[in-house]
Specification:
By secondary structure, the chain is α/β, with parallel strands linked by helices. The protein is 36% helix and 17% strand.
Length: 429
């Protein structure tokens, strides 16, 4: 692995949103992009599934693994203390990154899916008389959700006897506040909502909806996997009890993620993993759980992943989320305009101007065929239901083709995408 990184030239903070992006400097941080696929330069447009890691993240993880690797919280020797410091410094960095305050805590998980399962199972798993969810209670999820923010709530409803109700989007894929108001009752105990739909790019008015649910007495859960690397309000500004996200969708490593939220809400959760390092005292008859965050972090954690995730957050903030978002929104607008102009192509949620992805269908052509032909030209996109099959059913659609953008993508790559889709349609029809 390289020991030296190319200099990263960044715009001044006060003009980050307006200045042209220093795209060459940004792309130089991602060596994976320099390869060819089937004889063509790689255009990686599958970032909603997984982004690539910059050299700064790789180097932070390499440094930990070569100088500090040890198990944490359990040793008096120097490496254990260094590893513990690195892990807790990563936690502090990520708290700042999401805008947590003194009333919040941050728990490391394997990713958004584990984080959301930890909440859903933790709210019913404490047993009779102690669980937050009980028979007759109401859980509200939405029709925009990734399966990871729907299936755990289906299971929680079955196990607790609660009722799961889905806030369905309108014909354009939007969520309406008055529709949520009609579902909120005194028995509503949970609202689980995405900050950005991974299948369409729709950004619901989650700030207002979280506040509505909080006012009704519910705990609120925000899936921020597609949003946390972009401009979004600080956690302290949201009526949000639990927020989940993954490292691999924000230029960080795979296998690491976060559950963050209000400390008093996290304390309601029954731990998902029982065992090492999440206990304060144990006898043959009983166990006393440790205080947060250790209580929810049973087992040996992914320390290198936490270090890498913190480095990714620092990398994003060095560039500036406003600069990143301005670039991504321009790419999305270019893609929507170009794809919409192709005969027989329908773009989902064309109104979602703040999105970093575009999904589309083409008459009489299967998305998998489009994706295969694009790959032959070095263009990586995602095809399928994008872990949001109920939303596709709501639209009356099967699978779709999705192109999603990151800070290293270019307008030239978007033009390649549009031209390659047009060529694929000519070949397949």
């Amino acid at each position: 692995m390289p020991n030296h990184q190319p200099p990263l030239t960044l715009p001044e903070a006060d003009r980050a949103a307006a200045a042209p992006p220093p795209l060459a400097a940004w792309r130089a941080q991602f060596p994976v992009l320099s390869q060819q696929i089937h004889g063509h330069a790689l255009a990686y447009l599958d970032n909603a599934a997984t982004t690539h890691m910059p050299l700064a993240v790789m180097e932070a993880m390499r440094r930990f693994e070569t100088h500090e690797r040890a198990n944490i919280h359990r040793g008096v020797h120097t490496l254990s203390q260094r590893a513990t410091d690195a892990f807790e410094q990563a936690r502090a960095t990520l708290k700042r990154f999401i805008g947590a305050d003194a009333g919040h805590e941050l728990v490391f998980t394997s990713g958004t899916t584990e984080s959301l399962n930890l909440v859903a199972q933790g709210l019913w798993g404490a047993g009779p008389g102690q669980a937050w969810l009980r028979p007759g209670d109401r859980i509200i999820s939405t029709g925009l959700e990734h399966h990871a923010n729907l299936v755990p709530w289906q299971h929680a409803a079955r196990m607790s006897g609660a009722e799961l109700v889905v806030l369905r989007p309108d014909a354009q894929g939007r969520l309406q506040q008055d529709a949520l108001a009609a579902l909120l009752t005194p028995r509503t105990r949970v609202l689980a909502i995405t900050a950005s739909a991974n299948a369409t790019g729709e950004r619901p008015p989650y700030e207002a909806m979280l506040a509505m649910a909080r006012q009704a007495g519910a705990l609120t859960v925000l899936d921020a996997a597609q949003a946390v690397g972009h401009g979004m309000p600080a956690l302290s500004a949201l009526a949000c009890d639990f927020m989940a996200f993954s490292g691999h969708k924000m230029y960080g490593p795979m296998g690491i993620g976060v559950l963050a939220g209000r400390r008093d809400a996290l304390e309601r959760l029954h731990p998902l993993r029982l065992g090492g390092d999440m206990v304060e005292d144990v006898s043959y008859e009983r166990a006393i759980y440790a205080a947060l965050p250790a209580r929810l972090e049973g087992g040996t954690p992914n320390v290198a992943g936490a270090v890498g995730l913190a480095a990714a957050a620092t990398f994003i903030d060095r560039i500036g989320r406003a600069a990143i978002d301005g670039h991504l929104h321009a790419l999305r607008a270019q893609a929507v305009a170009g794809l919409s102009a192709l005969p027989g192509v329908t773009v989902l949620a064309p109104h979602a101007t703040q999105a970093a992805l575009v999904s589309f269908v083409a008459d009489q052509v299967h998305p998998h065929d489009i994706g295969t032909l694009l790959d032959e030209r070095g263009i990586a996109v995602r095809t399928g239901h994008h872990c949001a099959q109920p939303l596709h059913d709501h639209f009356g659609l099967g699978p779709t083709t999705r192109a999603s953008f990151a800070l290293y993508n270019s307008a030239e790559e978007v033009e390649r995408l549009i031209a390659a889709v047009a060529r694929a349609l000519e070949m397949l029809r």
